Amino acid sequence: MNTAFFSDLLASIADRGRSLLGLEEEPRDPSRQAAGLLELCEALLSGRGEASGAAIGMEVLERYVKLDPKGKLTFFDALARDYGPDPKRIEKALEAWRANPTEANASDIHFLAEPRRQELFRRLNRAPGGTAALVRMREELLDFRRENPSLDTIDRCLAHLFTSWFNRGFLVLRRIDWSTPASILEKIIRYEAVHEIRDWDDLRRRIDPADRRCYAFFHPALVDEPLIFVEVALTGEAPAAIAPLLAETRAVARVDQARTAVFYSISNCQRGLAGISFGNFLIKQVVEELRRELPKLETYVTLSPVPGFMRWLRARAPDLGPEERVTAAKIMDPAWAAEADKAEPLRKPVEALAAEYFLQARGSNGRPVDPVARFHLGNGARLERINFLGDCSLKALKDGAGLMVNYLYDLDDIEKNHEAYANQRVVAASSAVRRSLKGAGRSRLQLSAGSSS
Q1: CATH assignment of the domain containing 284
Q2: Which of 228, 299, 343, 387 makes an SS bond possible with 404, Cβ 3.0 to 4.6 Å?
């Protein structure tokens, strides 16, 4: 209710500002629309009035949406080229600091080095619906940036601002259940990125039974838009496969007998917030919520996909030994998993390759190549178990040879594991995972000496 009141207040201020300003009509010629929009941006940066600023900001955002792709690219090019910091003012501030290196002069350098586009985005954010509009703007910017690296400067400004605007202090954790408004439930179905939700019945099986939970982060400026959500199953022990958790005919577990909370799907919802981390806060807060509600829970574990394994294996193929090449060739065709008696002999070879993938494969920054591993290891989890054919869906077989992984969130070791990973890139792994690597003669990497099974 408070958020709605504040939004209405902003809209009222903007409407009054519009009537006072008498803003010119938008040019009809598409080739002039971007130029007209940039003139409004200059007016927004030069103005000081609250009502006029809200009105101009709203006009900028509305006109931006109407631009065709060519106009939007022209707009972004101008922001990248003409809305940076003023070099002369920076040089003058640097000279003042060299002559007198005080904190005040250093502060002047900091503020003068800020690009003008950053202040423009701040002022646009004050318009009604400004935050949501800027998130959508960045989503489009990311598409343009693929072919236009010069737009990185704009993206850095937006990412910097979003990191502040969407910090943990502003996020609200809400449980999603069958009583949640349908408009939000529809978005949960649409945004699910790990295990597709086929229909409303499928959604209900995931959020309505007593042994299921779903939690999402929301932001006051995006009231009905989840930022990220996690689906949780309450079980007796850590599962090795996803199918039993999602089965239509599964028996609902007794919550009083549950000892394990399984995070089996985490989905980011807003592509315009890519790179802004919410997941680490989400998991830790959900763990605290579950501990308060269900004090008998003992284990917090994920059941996670392995999306980059097959891509890595194809790149690794020239360096594989003869037996490994045979294994790799067999699992390149997703049909290999259709018959259990033919798939089972591949269990140990595939698990050995997976252990190498998780424990030895590194990107240029020294971090594991698997994106899901980077997320959970960075949060302080331990690579607990590699699950052979944990997901036999076609997508999982093509991307990850059907593998799934349990990452264990041991509350006593989370901080230690996080520090070791952040500072030395140490992968905390169970003895079972390490044995898979060593059994294949692949113990070149220094593993976490302190991790246990």
Answers
A1: 3.40.630.180
A2: 387
Instruction: Give the span between the Cα atoms of 182 and 185, in whole angstroms.
Output: 5
Where residue 90 sits, what CATH number does that domain have?
A: 1.20.140.90
Residues in CB range of 99: below 8 A, 6 or more apart: none
Q: Are 217 and 226 in contact (CB under 8 A)?
A: yes
User: Is 195 designated active site?
Assistant: no
Give the Cα separation of 157 and 11 in Å (integer): 26
Distances (CA, A) of 408 to 239, 311, 379: 12, 25, 11
On whether residue 48 sits in a domain, the answer given is yes
Q: What is the CATH number of the domain that holds 399?
A: 3.40.630.150
User: What is the CA angle 426-352-389, rounded to 5?
Assistant: 105
Number of domains in the chain: 3
Confidence at residue 49, expressed as pLDDT on a 0 to 100 scale: 76
| Three-class secondary structure of residue 386 per DSSP | strand
Token pair recorded at residue 237: 């022990």
Q: Which of 376, 430, 436, 451 is catalytic?
A: 376
Model pLDDT for residues 261-309, shown as the tens digit of each residue: 999 999 999 999 999 988 888 999 999 999 999 999 999 999 999 999 9
CB atoms within 10 A of CB 103: 8
Are 59 and 8 part of one and the same domain? Answer: yes
Condensed to tens digits (0 to 9), the pLDDT of residues 53-99 reads 888 999 999 999 999 999 999 999 999 999 999 999 999 999 999 99
Write out the DSSP string of 300-368.
EEE-EE-TTHHHHHHHHGGG--HHHHHHHHHHTSGGGGSSHHHHGGGHHHHHHHHHHHHHT-B-TTSSB
Q: Output the six-digit token pair for 78.
A: 């101008």
Q: Please tell me whether residues 13 and 154 are part of one structural domain.
A: yes
Q: Which of these is catalytic: 52, 265, 267, 304?
A: 304
Please give the pLDDT value at position 1.
42
* 267 labelled catalytic: no
